[in-house]
Amino acid sequence: MQKYDVAIVGAGPGGLMAAWKLAEKGVSVICFDKKQEIGVPVRCAEGLGGAAFERLGIEPDPAWATWEIKGAALYSPSGKKIEVTSEETMGVVLERRIFEKWLARKAANAGAKIFVKNHVRGVERKDKGVELTVSQHGTENKFFANIVIAADGVDSIIARKMGINTTGKLIDVDSGFQYEMAGIDFEGSDRIHLYFGNKIAPRGYCWIFPKGEHEANVGIGIGGTIQETAREYLDKWIASKEGLKKGSIIHVNSGAIPVGGFLEDMTADNLVVVGDAAHQVNPVHGGGIALAMQAAQIAAGVIAEAVEKKEYSHDALKGYNKLWYDAKGNSLKKILKIRHMLEEMDDKDFESLVDKITSEDVMKLARGELATGVKVTAKLVTAPGLVKKMLKHLK
Ligand SMILES: Cc1cc2nc3c(=O)[nH]c(=O)nc-3n(C[C@H](O)[C@H](O)[C@H](O)COP(=O)(O)OP(=O)(O)OC[C@H]3O[C@@H](n4cnc5c(N)ncnc54)[C@H](O)[C@@H]3O)c2cc1C
User: Fold this and answer.
1) Structure pTM?
2) Are residue 123 and residue 184 in the same domain, yes or no?
3) Distance from residue 289's CA to the centre of ligand 1 (Å)
């Protein structure tokens, strides 16, 4: 049986970043993915904020950072627009399949072993470590690792098998559906466009993430409890937009997005959970690529120390929780309150809010600055019902 210090289940951005950073630290690491090709299929709008590059210590590479974004445009149900442009809204729309392969090369070149078309079927604690049963091209083989990283995405089962319940409640999961489109017309290819309204996207929004002047990821995220499907809503919305309905669909993808239900403890004996599996996603915009990678870097630091000390218990690994919550998790909790506030708003509330909110307020709210929301309510004297809804979540 092959033995490693760390086995990673899932070669998405979280798993690959963990593999890269652990290998750099000299830890022996193996990373399995059930897909037959890294980065494919893409289930993502591919937006990545520029600040993430600095935070993660990676340089955008023109091979995958293919379209530059300078800001965001937010639209109310009646079409009123708020433009948000600042240092913080700079970013890129990625070619994610190329980006993930780039990450995989970094990890492999640093010494990590990566296997595709390898489905981890079982994990069982044995001899102070974990025995993994892996279906490799249809043949079952056993591997041994001292620590397992569950980076197996929103449908994670690995953590659950090892004692952490990662299953999100339906209310905390969005349903995403997206077309990559070409031959479309829209204004402002240097910004992402987000369209709000309960008729077009209940408990969520429709988006256009440009990939060129006439190409974009056009998608929708709606609450997981909504009866009609995300695709039905998206098709209706596209049909209402002259510039979009004339275009061609060159790729269809869909997936669930965890938007809440954060795990307080993402560690157990021999186990660390990262990325979507740990619900490390921004609950308002659903972005999780950068967060998964940041969590992976934090986890890699804690795990490398544990391996050095040959300590694989919950006690040796639990430091990851505090480091994560200090770095990002606590601000995500505040952003979750903003999500709950938005979810309660009807279309009339959206219109009242858009009339009074500034783009600076939007930026602050997006960062989880709840006091800004409270400040905005002072301007909403003509909408007492909305004020009540907002204060319920912001105080
Ligand atoms: C429609 C949609 C649009 C999105 N748009 C954006 C966006 O624009 N920007 C952004 O930042 N985020 C976006 N996200 C969220 C983003 O895609 C995720 O947050 C991100 O992929 C999380 O990375 P991860 O490594 O945790 O998990 P994943 O990328 O899901 O990787 C998990 C991997 O684990 C593998 N796996 C699972 N189980 C096993 C097993 N038993 N054995 C072996 N392998 C296994 C899977 O094959 C997969 O490759 C979007 C999501 C959706 C659904």
Assistant:
1) 0.96
2) no
3) 8
